[in-house]
Amino acid sequence: MSVNKLMLKGTLLLASGLFLTNCSTNKYAATDKVYKKMAKDFSKTIKATPPQGQTIDSLNNEQYFVGTVNMGIRKPNYVIIHHTAQESTEQTLKTFTLTRTAVSAHYVVGRDGKVFQMVNDYLRAQHAGAGKWGSVTDMNSCSIGIEMDNNGTTDVWTDAQINSLCSLLATLKKKYGIPTANFIGHADFAPSRKPDPNNFPWKTLAKKGFGLWYDDVLEMPPAEFDTTLALRIIGYDIKNLGSAITAFKRHFVGTDLSPKLTDSDKLILFNLYKKYM
């Protein structure tokens, strides 16, 4: 065998070995395969013309289909930020790849700043659950869920993590035209159930255009200022008013999470109320 053939054979063996090594080190190869199969099945549903199993008129006639040329893919209009309440990125990735947990997110941002995408932006992740923000009750269908690796109690938010999050948010905002006010926390959407993200630097995000914030100089609200109405205008579900107040204070005040508005809280609320109107 010539020297050139030996070199070529060696290169092919090396490449084959590297390929096998890379495959063997992917702990999520099995779930990646399931994801691809599910996405393929979704595409079959979308391509069905007409959709199977539907009767579309009162005479039970054969279905008629005329394809329009005016359509597009649904796109997200909200971003919901969570904390994982777990001890590591690895633990969260495992949780989101177990069928029995029935939970997921589009992105997971590690404490070291590494970003993992787990669901295509156009698909529906299972991250928000039951809740309400404004008139939206099915947030999973219109949002992107981002899980921040943080246990929610003792962990601090790292610069690397927040910097990566802001870069990701900038990309999503530009790509989908997500309104500034539509970057919210899980607790904002589900105040009676969830406290996340806890102790979160919302002001830092707001300065970069991700979520609204109140002004440095605050105006006294009028005597007739309706705080409950203001919370509802901002988006909070006021069915459980105490939970809505706590969620508001968790996001915009950060201290004293009691379900009662202080005078200083009312100054902040009035300022934000005018921004959301």
Explained architecture:
The chain is an alpha/beta fold. Among the domains are: 73-199, Peptidoglycan recognition protein-like (Lysozyme-like); 214-277, no CATH class. The protein contains nine helices and five strands; from the N terminus they run ααβαβββαβααααα. It has a five-stranded mixed beta sheet, sandwiched between helices. β2 (107-109) and β3 (115-117) form a beta hairpin. The relative contact order is 0.10.
Structural class: alpha/beta
Calculate the mean pLDDT score and round it. Answer: 90
- What's the architecture of the domain at 73-199 in CATH terms? 3-Layer(aba) Sandwich
**Name of the level-1 CATH class of the domain at 73-199:** Alpha Beta
Which quaternary structure do these chains form? single chain
What's the structural blueprint in terms of helices and strands?
Blueprint lengths: L2 H22 L4 H19 L30 E6 L5 H7 L11 E3 L5 E3 L25 E6 L10 H18 L6 E3 H4 L12 H6 L19 H8 L6 H12 L10 H14 L1
Short summary:
By secondary structure, the chain is α/β, with parallel strands linked by helices.
List keywords for this structure.
Lysozyme-like; 40% helix; 277 residues; disordered N terminus; five-stranded mixed β-sheet; 9 helices
